Amino acid sequence: MAVDGSLKGVERRGLMFVLSSPSGAGKSTLARMLIEKMPGLSMSVSVTTRSMRPGEVDGEHYHFIDKARFHAMVKDGGLLEHATVFDNSYGTPRQPVEHALSSGRDVLFDIDWQGTQQLREKARVDVVSVFILPPTAGDLERRLHTRAQDSDEVIAGRMSRASHELSHWAEYDYVVVNSDLNEAYTQVVTILNAERLKRERQPGLSAFVRDLQNQLAK
Ligand code: 5GP
């Protein structure tokens, strides 16, 4: 077996693994754990016009750009998808994703439902989407406060948007309730590993089986 779970030596097509949730449901933590622990997975670093929060690093959490640059990227087709969230613009740079997928790597996206819809329209078979739910509304609010990155006003705005974001849960392939971080992580990894093993994601399988048949015929 190769490190990513597929058959060793069998060519595999990279998949687009999307995590979405209302802010505060633990999605970013799950994304970080996946990138640290799962081989063969690259994070898609989005561009955004929002300002940097304390502790964020340009080029790591986001590429922080101004509105003019964002509009230029949209115009030039440099973004695979883009959306306005909380009055700021966010988008996925196309080139790094295409590069990773064509070299057989999977790409992880932390994007909202609007971006997920656009990716699905463009590449349905390559997109695997997971919606992360908080166990309770109180839990969501607590996490937003603990994060201490936003003002009370911003947090109130995020809470009122959460209900709207939740309404998109049924558009996702999988739904995970994050009551316990390690359990949610295990569930997300299980989804990724199973999707990696899908027959249609391993185009090299037909050659592998043909070879087996040739061996058997001898
Ligand atoms: P935040 O400002 O808290 O980092 O992100 C706000 C929301 O924007 C989150 O739901 C996040 O998933 C979403 N988001 C971040 N990057 C992108 C992107 O490139 N495209 C889309 N559509 N949403 C994004």
Topology, pairings included?
Layout: E1 16-20, H1 27-37, E2 41-43, E3 47-48, E4 63-64, H2 67-75, E5 79-85, E6 88-93, H3 94-102, E7 106-110, H4 113-123, E8 127-133, H5 137-147, H6 152-166, E9 174-177, H7 181-196, H8 205-217
The structure holds guanosine-5'-monophosphate.
Features:
218 residues; alpha/beta; Rossmann fold; five-stranded parallel sheet; four-stranded mixed sheet; 8 helices; 44% helix; globular; binds guanosine-5'-monophosphate
Please explain how this structure is put together.
- With 218 residues, the protein is an alpha/beta fold.
- It has a domain at 16-43 and 106-217: 3-Layer(aba) Sandwich (Rossmann fold), CATH 3.40.50.
- It has helices at 27-37, 67-75, 94-102, 113-123, 137-147, 152-166, 181-196, 205-217; strands at 16-20, 41-43, 47-48, 63-64, 79-85, 88-93, 106-110, 127-133, 174-177.
- It binds guanosine-5'-monophosphate.
- Guanosine-5'-monophosphate (5GP) is lined by residues 23, 46, 50, 81, 83, 85, 90-92, 110-112, 114-115.
- Guanosine-5'-monophosphate is lined by residues 23, 46, 50, 81, 83, 85, 90-92, 110-112, 114-115.
Please report the distance between the alpha carbons of the first and last residues.
25 Å
Number of helices: 8
Q: Could you tell me which ligands this complex binds, including any ions or cofactors?
A: guanosine-5'-monophosphate
Biggest sheet, spatial arrangement of strands: 2-7-1-8-9
Q: Low-confidence parts lasting 5 or more residues at pLDDT below 50?
A: none
Q: Give the CATH architecture of the domain at 16-43 and 106-217.
A: 3-Layer(aba) Sandwich
User: CATH topology of the domain at 16-43 and 106-217, which one?
Assistant: Rossmann fold
Mean pLDDT: 91
3D shape: globular
Radius of gyration, CA atoms, in whole angstroms: 19 Å
Percent helix: 40-55%
Which structural class do the helices and strands define?
alpha/beta
Number of strands: 9
Work out the strand percent: 15-25%
Largest sheet: 5 strands, parallel
CATH class of the domain at 16-43 and 106-217: Alpha Beta
CATH H level of the domain at 16-43 and 106-217: which superfamily?
A: P-loop containing nucleotide triphosphate hydrolases
Which H/E pattern describes the elements? EHEEEHEEHEHEHHEHH
